[in-house]
Amino acid sequence: MLGILIRFLAALVLVFATWNPTGWSFVHWLISTLPNVTAGLVFVGVILVIGWILFLHATLESLGLLGIILALAFFGSLTWLIFNFGWLSTGQEVLSYVVLVVISAILAVGMAWSRIWRRLSGRVEVEEGHD
Q: In the structure, what pLDDT confidence band is assigned to residue 4 with cuts at 50, 70 and 90?
């Protein structure tokens, strides 16, 4: 469980560092400095791109397109249920946070899927060598 939690926290950092509704994100920083791009901005941008590629590649490889669609359906219906119970308000800012958390959750599941699958099924996935 700790590994999944760490992956979820890493995904949250990646997603919220890229964009969030507070105004403190890479996208806001980029927009505020254009057209004067700095070395720090480029460096942070490269780090974020590396993070996104790692998370997206792992998620696509482990879940596949059908798995991503199912994860979207699962988290989307869970979100709808939470809103339906009245546990969250339907304001635009709340919805923005929920979408960012759902994206993070899907990325975390994608990163941890082989570990989750091993626990659920008792089977070990072995990647075939590509010659």
A: confident
Provide the whole-model pTM.
0.81
End-to-end CA distance of the chain: 35
Asked if pLDDT for residue 69 goes beyond 70, the answer is yes
Fill in the DSSP letter of residue 22.
T
Q: Are 49 and 14 in contact (CB under 8 A)?
A: no
Can you spell out the DSSP letters for 24-89? Answer: -SHHHHHHHHTT---HHHHHHHHHHHHHHHHHHHHHHHHHHHHHHHHHHHHHHHHHHHHHHTTSS-
